User: Fold these one by one.
Assistant:
Number 1:
Amino acid sequence: MDLLIKAALLSLLLLLNGCSTVGKSVMLGATVGGIAGDAMGNNQNLQGGGGFGMVIGAGIGGLISYLAFKEKEKKSTSDKLNPISKSVEDEFPFLTKPKIRSVIIPDTIEGNKFIKSHKVFILEDAGSWSKD
């Protein structure tokens, strides 16, 4: 196949894939994989390399696009089962960020104890509920 025809076919399939179904996704993946396999097979300069590469590429591309479509479909189904309405989220206030100060305590010796320097975190403001 001429490179221009392959590019036109690929562009057409990409444009038609707007509302994706399993068939369209697999067809697009197989086409892209087939074109890539054909190009790599022809590049090897073996007799029948382009046809063999096209078949292998189409199979791998179709499988990958099928698995990707199923994963996307599974994710969208789980989103539909767990809808979070924006209006409900807007009704609830949120917590403001707490204010924390850190102090480094130097090495100290107390009797027969050596206390290595360390950080101490002091909570100055625990945060509060806010609608802003």
Number 2:
Amino acid sequence: MEDEIEDLKEVKDQAMESLTLEHWAYDWFMELGASQDMANYLTIALDLVLLFLIAFVVDFIGRRVILSFVRSYVKKSKNEYDDVLYDKKVFTSLAHLLPAAIIYYALPYILEDLAISIVLIHKIITIYMIVVVLTVIARFLRAVEYIGLRTTRFQGKPISSYIQVFILLSYIVGGVLIISMLVGKSPLTIITAFGAATAVLLLVFRDAILGLVASIQISANDMVRLGDWVSMDKYGADGDVIEINLTTVKVRNWDKTITTVPTYAFIADSFKNWRGMETMGVRRIKRALHIDLSTVSFVDDEMRSRFIKFERIRGYVEKRQQEIDAYNKAQKVDKNELLNGRHMTNLGMFRRYALAYLEEHPKIDQKETVMVRQLQPSETGLPLEIYCFSSDIAWVNYEGIQSDIFDHLIAAAPKFGLRVFQNPSGADFGRLRESSTRKQAEKTDKQEGGKSENLQG
């Protein structure tokens, strides 16, 4: 590096000694009374100003005239890709290369006697051109991303992650080239020097590296797509995926908030993807009614005659009673006690009624599992679970179907002598107190009435 600086100094000294004075501006400055050195520097400065002025005019023409021609061509073209490239300002960035190229190639003719100035300005212009090229690449890749996200073939794929990787790689290459120019070393030497800082780079780009690996696995295994409904309790995410990029996945929750989840979390943590539900076109209903155990009883003759009036289970009650009667007769069961032999229960009748109701419901998919089952009894009663699938997966419609089913079943339970369990509330205690007070008052009235009769007797 020191040798290069000494060489440049020698070149500068030689240039200053042999600096040509055959220039109209030089003669003009000399006529104005400027010294020889001042005239030399003023001449060079004037040439640079004129050069940059020409470059500015060329840039203006490029952006106004050339881009106007490109815009008119894009509008007439039937190809949609050039429209995207124009909207993403790819051509605008390319237009900035033209004035830089003019300055780069015109400098040797203007500063032909000052080699050190040519080298320095060439480096500055080259760095500027590298930055412009990086901008063109980034905008071009953004245009590719825009096209890919709207192409059926790549629908739901993490295109943004791959685009960000390419942009990052281009920035790294551009940074290496700029550093190599500034320090006067080859790019290979710079890359070799970076090898010693690998640990630091891994720490700095940890999320990007993890995100890249996760994006590849997500894409290869088709785990998440744009538009999927996902649920991740750990991150409070429950909604549609609206963006997948290198480091994060954005989820728009149902309350319209947006949760940002690290991309690698979809590999490291558990999450639920509801895409299968949307693909199948059905949505599961799984909810239980809690029956008060004290209301469960055998079906006597009076209850059976009432159940036969229920059209949904009339045939089942008659057939079931025939089977039970045949069994009890064969076993010579004493029918005076319901506990003897086999008998129907009001809970079993209600369970059969609920199943029949689901089987004839127009919004329940009969091709999927339809079931009414008992779960483990608990302190809240006996759970009677409804398990079926709605044929309408729209959230509002689904909730309406589920609510209609349970509205009907809750209202139907008392018809079977059953009571849906719920913890007592203040109103229940109030009614109990009023009932107790009323009974106590009736008892007191009877006692006083009895005393009055005894006195009259």
Number 3:
Amino acid sequence: MSYQVEEVNGCTKKLVFSFESLDLTTEIKNELVKKQRTVSLKGFRKGKAPLSVVQKMYGPQVESEALNSFIQNKMYEAITKEDLRVVGYPNFENMNYDPGKSVSFDAVVEIFPKVTLKDMSNLSFTKDAVEFKDSDLDDVRKNHMNSKAEMTEVKDDSVALDKGLFAVMNFQGEMPNGEKPENMKGEEFLLEIGSGQFIPGFEDQMLGMKKGDKKTLEVTFPADYQATDLQNALVKFEVDLLEIKEKNYPEFTDELAKEFGFDSVSDFEEKNKANLIDQKERVAKQKLNQEILDKLVEENSFDIPAALVAQQENHLKEDVKKTLAQQGFNEQMMQEYFEKWTSDLTDKAKFQVRSGLILDAIAKEHNVEASQEDFDIKLEEVAKSSGLDMEQIKSFYSKDESMKNNLMFAIREEKTFEKIYGFVKIK
């Protein structure tokens, strides 16, 4: 055997190659033929120059390419023989080449680690109870009825601002240095209290205000606010409440329910109640699954490939870039953002890689796979929850194979969690 395998860590191997005698005749001929097809030499048509002429003109380059081909072939032969699941590209080290005589080199490769998990039977978790409230259905009804609602002024001056009411106000922000920027100013601005449209704390401090009241609010801008000069800044806002308004909704009748695609008011209530319960169940499961992942990652330590972490970190950055762009960030602002939060993204990428490997290990151990039947059932669930036609859903996933693959991956992960529920204690 012309190589030895050394273990660097749980997910890194070093293949140490040494060839005391080296014959690159085959590789050089192959590279000469490749070169012959592409080069144009004076006196010959493209691709028709004799091999001897090509070798004379490109000898050193062809030999270098032949050596590279030899190294790549030997490395992949070893990887195949050792049955290594390689991640990313090898890193070559300690290259020593005596032209035409010998060559030695090291190839450092990252591999998927073997994940052996600790017993899960002693782990205990609590899943949130799913409760339905009539107010949940009221919110859905209001969302459907928004286009039918009429905005009117509250005439009773004794009425105080509360969530769900609307404030018509003038406001002016003042920076810590005393400046009052124009972009922190508003006149006759309409704000729904409780909508979360303004900086956290702004709307809460307006609760209880009455028409004609003036008040100074103090809010601290979020640490990740899009304007870096306002991150963590304590800003004062002078607020003048001009009016209080409310939305008045018409009676919700069978006729209106039919406009929204339902047979009747009772059909609307029945179907939306079922959807709300399904949504709450999904949220409860997502929270439970996250707690399970947190614990499994905490309990099981193993080396993870840097290449997988870098790949996942790039995915996260691309997702963040899209979100920041939608919020109005320019390139400079994005650069400042990533300089500040890179370590957080790296930690998140490491967690996602580690948790993904854990779930994959559990799935393989218990033969968990996503079938075409699972896929079809999931499409029916998507159609039901979205209100879209089944054919529309099928068409969407049939157009893009990657979309189907992503959904199949999610189904496998979902089934893996179902398997885990049988191993741990869940209250």
